[in-house]
Amino acid sequence: MGMVSIEPGSYHVVPPQNPGEVIDLIRTHAIQVVDLRFTDLPGVWQHFSITLPEVNDDLFSVGIGFDGSSIRGFQEIHESDMLVRPDPATAFIDPYCAAPTLALICDVLDPVLHQPYSRDPRHIARKAELYLRQTGLATVCYLGPELEFFIFDSIRFGQDQHSGYYHVESAEGEWTSGRDEGAYGGGNLGYKQRYKGGYFPVPPSDTLQDIRSEIVLALMQAGIQVEVHHHEVATAGQNEIDMRFAPLMRMADNVMMYKYICKNVARRHGKVATFMPKPLFADNASGMHCHQSLWRDAENLFYDKNGWAQTSQMCRWYIGGLLSHAPALMAFCAPSTNSYKRLVPGYEAPVNLAMSQRNRSAAARIPMVSDSPSARRVEFRCPDPSANAYLAFSAMLLAGLDGIENQTDPGDPLDKNIYDLPPEEAARIRQVPGSLEESLCALEADSAFLRKGDVFTEDLITTWIDYKRTREIDTLKVRPHPWEFQLYFDI
Q1: Which residues touch 99 (CB under 8 Å, ≥6 apart)?
Q2: Residues 326/432, Cβ–Cβ less than 8 Å
């Protein structure tokens, strides 16, 4: 299993723009199978494959049917017929299928109304971009998420009526420093990542350099520009690969490809990648810090040479919107029960709803790595990679636009370590919710900003809340937790 190879000059693939160019791509690369992919409500790719005779004009105009009742968060069984319609601009050659396969990301359609399906996450992102242009404030919102993830050697977990457990294995893990690693017994290779010590030692401590490089090459082969990759802070294989910023919906598409490629490269090497935010106790978790800015054509509207941290008033109002709506935003940006094991003090997690420059302990910060006008942006640090990128990116944009519309003051900058503030001063700083349930309650109380431009429908919001409560929160409530036996068994 060697590295993915890339032809010179093929790093930045020009995607097809119409069905005819997709057909040309199929012929040029002797494609045998076409794979159609779409995103369910929680944010996981679903797919089915078609043969070449089915690739015709109707596929790109009318679409092709599937059973929507089997997809999480979609239709009931009595209204199950749905359509997917591929977007030609998303075509890429899948490097993990034995048969030459072209993958296409699809939009979901209602076959009765002949309109985009209101619960299709990609449709939400498209409406968010349209609403931005309709406001006249900007023409494009650029997103640059930093997805962190773990690559483990093994993961075992399970729970039934009488037992429950999980077990993580990683050759990098601090806990393996005393383990016998010799093929025939006797010995340990050392160089383990200490807890919170994974940023940035070179190999052999960093055992995942080549795997990350393989992921990067595969991403570039799929047409995604990558800027940097590195080991992250936690022990046991935490990683980060940063994609170059892109318009909102395109970046959400990229996130789906990113997750797919990371998981499949890891599997090729007999390992497993996870975007679960907090798989390890007592070490850093995985975030998805989201860099964002508004532009009018080639002009960055967040830049002002004379403003605080060289930001414009529009940028600061945008931040005000993010901070004021943050409790509701967390329902989409930190949407798992596990997310709130990350959002606790002491692990570089931004629990404090404050604005700062350079300071990573603030929820919203202004990176100061460049004086270039094009580099001025806000980094919102609360989201994590369990989020559905289409929904999370759209929700953040709408919160920011609401802040601009209402000229929301983000408060005074806090350019110091917020975790070290005196108790009386720290008590005045708002914090993110402490649980998914709190975030869902905040969303119920504060959703008007999401419904502007009909971007998020009332049906989508109520379906999301109901799904999270019944499928995730309630199922966790009724199951004993292993730590409860430590706390209470001898009471």
Answers
A1: 32, 33
A2: yes
The answer to whether the CB of 300 falls within 8 A of the CB of 361 is no
Strand partners, 150: 238, 274
The answer to whether 355 and 319 are in contact (CB under 8 A) is: yes
Q: Is 227 known to sit in a ligand binding site?
A: yes
This model's pTM is above 0.70:
yes
According to DSSP, residue 311 is labeled B
DSSP SS3 for 234: coil
Distance CA 430, CA 307 (A): 25
Determine the Cα angle at 297 with ends 104 and 358, to 5°: 90
293 has binding-site annotation: yes
Q: Does 54 carry a binding-site annotation? A: no
User: Under 8 Å CB-to-CB from 297, ≥6 apart: which residues?
Assistant: 139
Q: How far apart are CA 30 and CA 15, in angstroms?
A: 17
- Chunked in runs of 10, what are the mean pLDDT values of the chain (491 residues)? 40 73 95 98 98 95 94 83 96 95 97 93 98 98 98 97 96 92 76 94 96 97 96 97 98 98 98 98 96 97 96 98 98 98 81 85 89 94 98 98 98 79 83 97 98 98 98 97 95 97
Catalytic amino acids?
67, 146, 148, 232, 240, 289, 360, 379, 381
Query: Cβ of 352: how many Cβ atoms within 10 Å?
Result: 23
Give the number of residues written for the chain: 491
Residue 148 assigned ligand-binding role = yes
Task: Kindly list the structural domains of the chain, giving each domain's residue range(s) and its CATH number in brackets, ordered by start.
Answer: 19-117 (3.10.20.70), 140-486 (3.30.590.10)
- Residue 471 phi/psi, 5-degree rounding, is -90, -20
Report which of 342, 366, 346, 344 is spatially closest to residue 354, judged by C-alpha positions.
366
284 annotated as ligand-binding = yes
In 3D space, the residue among 14, 65, 56, 62 whose CA is nearest the CA of residue 38 turns out to be 65
